[in-house]
Amino acid sequence: MAEYKNYILVCGGTGCRASRSSELVEELNKQLKIYQLENDAKVLTTGCFGFCEKGPNVKIIPDNTFYTRVKPEDAEEIVKEHILKGRKVQRLLYLDPDTNKHISDDKHMEFYKKQVRIALRNCGFIDPENIKESIERDGYAALGKVLTELTPEQTIDIILKSGLRGRGGAGFPTGKKWAIASKSVAKPKYVICNADEGDPGAFMDRSILEGDPHSVLEAMAICGYCIGAEHGLIYVRAEYPLAIHRLQVAIKQAREYGLLGNDIMGSGFNFDVELRYGAGAFVCGEETALIHSMEGKRGEPTLKPPFPAVHGYLGQPSNVNNVETFANVPIIILKGADWFSSIGTATSKGTKVFALAGKINNVGLIEVPMGTTLREVIFDIGGGMKNGKKFKAVQTGGPSGGCLTEKHLDVPIDYDNLKAAGSIMGSGGMIVMDEDNCMVAVAKFYLEFIVGESCGKCSPCRIGNMRMLEILTKICDGKGTMDDLYELRDLAHVIKDTALCGLGQTSPNPVLSTLDNFWDEYVAHVRDHKCPAGVCKNLMEYHIDPAICVGCGACQRNCPADAISGEKRAPHTIDQSKCIKCGTCREKCKFGAISIQ
Amino acid sequence: MNKIKSLDDLRKMKQNMAGDLSIREKSTNPEKMIQIRVAMATCGIAAGARGVMNAFVEKIEKDKIPAIVTQTGCMGFCYAEPTVEVRIPGKDPVVFGHVDAAKVEEIVDKYIVKGELIDGILPVSFQTIEEHENK
Ligand SMILES: Cc1cc2nc3c(=O)[nH]c(=O)nc-3n(C[C@H](O)[C@H](O)[C@H](O)COP(=O)(O)O)c2cc1C
Ligand code: SF4
Ligand code: SF4
Q: Of the residues A155, A222, A357, B16, which has the fewest C-beta atoms closer than 10 A?
């Protein structure tokens, strides 16, 4: 029987591999052989532990000892001391920076886990299409508690004291929002869940709905009880068919179990939830536009006030919260405000879910306590930069956010810190960029998105963003002037100050933050007509070095624009007026004769 | 199925599910069985999770393994989809990444049948609420 007494798990994540973890595996195997322990212990390569800065990491099972910075030279000592004699190798244990002591106690071996799953507590654990699995993990227990033991005021008080702030972007205190909606006297009232999730690259809300729809339904019912609403509506984009399917199944099951519907758990409280489908316009994530869209009107925002809490869906008081905001609610009720507010920073409590994407090794869905630094997210949890490239910037907050740089890496993530650094928390998209990303092109990408998504109702956003995009296009084409850069900044401020809704008011952020942090890169485009990252096509020229070219004709045959000419066995040349900068010739040349200038 | 008419009903239901399962039959008795959970969120499905799920179903049927295959949501490891969690009663759950047809065979033959850990485990890189509380 091949049950081993010990397993030596060696991190095979890209970060650790770069620091010789595969050599370590070899050496461990060699040492096991030497000490004749091959049948007692087995060496395994695993995925990333999320503690890459201290890698290569090694974990011994079953005692869960965690070694950091293990080198191939340490293999013998691990085998001889730990596996053979059962003694931990003290010097390889993690040195706790706070106490300056090695952590050797099994119970405290969790320190390397930087993520804490609160909003995602059930995601990936339960079958989302089986309500029993949700109930087994305390699904609807918070609703039961609220309906049976607490008044709406007491419940709102818990949410208020917990410090929970909206996860949809703006970070408004959720308890305060509920309190305001509860004071509106008109009936009926509505609880609305914003599942529009329009930021490019974001998928936090989709994952929650697909993995744990009952938490959201339960929280909506709790909110309904607090503000005095019997109707819940989820506005979800039609592009999320699986999330919609899981929600439909969840709503059906909750009704069957009497957890939605009339007289829930014998309390006399009625609540039911319906779905509304959005067509996937970014502006429809803005709450007033969302409400209009649900009413069957054009998805255009209106000026606030009046806020939805007073004048919302069908003119009735409505409370709009984001999916992730809701997902936090039941567990706060069960564990208490103090528990929740003990996690996080002074102004931002709890955790935040991020969709980690871009030039990073471990793309994925992560959840970290507020106050975790960008460095920890990118270099530990994210496993560092792909292909060993240099970190350049991280974009948070999507089209409403900004690009942060090296100097912001140690900023503890929370609403206020990210804002002070020139970006925003946003809903949780986080895109990591490396030296090959051109920041002018990045700003242009977001503006293209905005120009496509602007509803056109107000002119600063409709015309202003278009003007900014024109200028950025000019710069990327090498036709920009220094005056353009100043005009860009002026325009950005005017749009920020005068646009009607949040879309326009925040749309200049990617431009402003890149102007602030990457001014030199803009200047290089304008003054030197160079794109330092080699992205902007119109600032590049492909050239054939006549000293290297052998005249084989491979480039000529493959050029889709017929831009290359030359006699056989004589150096070829590229006609720059025809060249479309596709780069095919450079790939095809076996002699490396073609370069970018 | 009975409606839940009070908080007590809900609590009883929860308890029942964690309680004595031996009397219940296979499908309603998941806790005693080996569970194979395939992450079936949009990202997992795009990476081939459905095929993996089918491969597990066929394999355990063929080899007569007392296991059930179910779906779950996103585990967060988008870089390693398709991901699968295997829960053997009495042991810590283990997550495997980059699962394909060959890996399905290996997981069942080695880990489930022989209890032997294999390459490609994704270490749990997060704390649960309870772990975080007890720190
Ligand atoms: C252009 C724009 C897009 C928005 N998109 C979303 C979205 O996709 N999801 C979301 O929850 N909130 C979005 N919001 C924020 C909502 O207007 C609203 O503040 C939020 O849903 C409130 O919920 P919360 O307090 O729980 O965050 C967007 C706002 C703007 C201005
Ligand atoms: S700022 Fe843009 S999206 Fe908002 S109302 Fe004006 S035009 Fe429409
Ligand atoms: S492929 Fe290279 S060597 Fe051949 S003709 Fe083109 S540039 Fe010259």
A: B16
Q: Where are the beta strands (DSSP E) in A204-309?
A: 231-237, 272-278
pLDDT band at A546 (very low <50, low <70, confident <90, very high): very high
Return the C-alpha torsion angle A349, A351, A353, A357, nearest 10: 100
* Residue A575 CB coordination number (10 Å): 12
Classify burial at B51, counting beta carbons within 10 Å of its beta carbon; exposed 0-12, middle 13-18, buried 19 or more.
Answer: middle
Q: By mean pLDDT, which of A59-63, A115-119, A502-506 is the weakest? A: A59-63
Nearest to residue A424, comparing CAs of A247, A190, A171, A230? A171
List pLDDT tens digits, range A319-375.
Answer: 999 999 999 999 999 999 999 999 999 999 999 999 999 999 988 899 999 999 999
Q: What is the CATH number of domain A541-596?
A: 3.30.70.20
CATH of A351-434, one of 3.40.50.880, 3.10.20.600, 3.30.428.10, 3.50.50.60: 3.10.20.600
Pick the CATH number of B31-133 from 3.40.30.10, 3.40.50.720, 3.30.429.10, 3.30.360.10: 3.40.30.10
Give residue limits of the domains in chain B.
Answer: 31-133
Question: Looking at the predicted complex, does its ipTM rise above 0.90?
Answer: no
Mean pLDDT of A448-475: 96
Task: Assess whether pLDDT exceeds 80 at residue A535.
Answer: yes
What angle is formed at CA A127 by the lines to CA A126 and CA A132, rounded to 5 degrees?
Answer: 85
Q: What is the mean pLDDT of residues A382-397?
A: 93
Say whether A48 and B123 touch across the interface (CB within 8 A).
Answer: yes
Q: What percent of chain A has pLDDT over 70?
A: 99
Q: Is CATH 1.20.1440.230 correct for A439-527?
A: yes
Task: Provide the b/e sequence for A222-244 (b: ≥16 CB within 10 Å).
Answer: bbbbbbbbbbbbbbbbeebebbb
In this prediction the pTM is: 0.90
Partner residue facing B41 (CB), from A7, A211, A362? A211
- B-chain CB neighbours of A44 within 8 Å are 117-119, 121
A29: CB partners within 8 A, 6+ apart: A43
pLDDT of residue A421: 92
Cα A540 to the chain's mean position, in Å?
A: 32
Q: d(Cα A101, Cα A197) in Å, to the nearest integer?
A: 44
Q: What is the pLDDT of residues A55-98, one digit of tens each?
A: 899 999 888 899 999 999 999 999 999 999 999 999 999 888 77
Question: What are the sequence ranges of the domains in chain A?
Answer: 6-108, 131-340, 351-434, 439-527, 541-596
CATH 3.90.1150.10 fits A131-340, yes or no: no
Residue A586's beta-bridge partner residues?
Answer: none
User: Which B positions 70-129 lie with beta carbon below 8 A of chain A?
Assistant: 70-80, 85, 97, 110, 114-129
Write the CATH number of the domain with boundaries A6-108. 3.40.30.10
Peptide bond into A305 cis (omega under 30): yes
Is the Cβ pair A265, B4 closer than 8 Å? yes
Rounded-to-integer distance, Cα A524 and Cα A515, Å? 12
pLDDT digits (tens, 9 = 90+) for A128-162: 999 999 999 999 999 999 999 999 999 999 999 99
Contacts of A65 in chain B (CB under 8 A): none
Mean pLDDT value of segment A12-21: 80
CB contact under 8 A, A47 and B121: yes
Q: Would you say A522 and A572 are in contact if contact means Cβ atoms under 8 Å apart? A: no
